[in-house]
Amino acid sequence: MNIIQRNIERLIYNDRSNDEHIEPMTAWKWTRLYKIVQQHGLGPWVAEGIQAYKDDFYLQLSPTLLQQFLDLAGEKNPEMLKRYELFVERSKGLLHKLKRQSIEAYTHDFINTIKNIEE
After folding, report:
1. What's the pLDDT at 98?
2. Residue 36: pLDDT band by 50, 70, 90 thresholds?
3. Model-level pTM greater than 0.90?
4. DSSP string spanning 48-100?
5. Alpha-carbon gap, residue 53 to 32, rounded angstroms
6. Would you tell me how many other CB atoms lie within 10 Å of the CB of residue 102?
7. How far apart are CA 2 and CA 102, in angstroms?
């Protein structure tokens, strides 16, 4: 797992990993992290994580990017988090080690794909 993914997980699950620090990243990597968060609809979780880690030395964001992250705050959609977790599992090649919620998310995506094809 790369540094961007590890930091996304720290920010999403900030309540579980408060003893862990954010890993230092370049401005480019923080921008890449922001784009991934937007793409997967993880804004509310990451915005909450940014707030939780605001005093972490390694959370070095430009004021503009910090504000962009905080603007992503809103209502959490658990389905988006499940989809992201499935995406991470697929990218790691761990699809054969499916969890119950991963199977549900995969089935949901599959059914939606079939419905879209039929339309």
Report:
1. 56
2. very high
3. no
4. HHHHHTTT-TT----HHHHHHHHHT-S---HHHHHHHHHHHHHHHT-TTS--H
5. 19
6. 19
7. 21
